[in-house]
Amino acid sequence: MRITEVVAALIWQGDKFMICQRPAYKARGLLWELVGGKVEPGETKELALIRECKEELDVLLSVGDVFMDVVHEYHDLTVHLTLFNATIAEGEPQKLEHNDIRWITPNDIPDYEFCRADEEILRKIIEVHL
Asked: Rg of the chain's alpha carbons, rounded to an integer?
């Protein structure tokens, strides 16, 4: 089984963190996720995250430490997702790729339908921040 390396950013603004809604035409369309994407060959995870956030949100990211990582098996692929604490160093998030962008508190998590790979991460966010 091949594992796809994926990175995501946990970006806080006060007591709220950023979530993004996947475009309808993509796999897991219209589900919510933390911003990020696939690591390309030869890239470090941090560089992949900076590139993805530039492509998808037009922001320059400052990447911090790893918040947690999970392995999740979807029917079509298995992902190893590494979630980094991060901050926006430059720019205002734009919807270049996503259907929508929201800033939510950990209390708001149950109001959104997230990608399955994020569920364990969201439980930890609730644990750590409530």
From this structure: 14
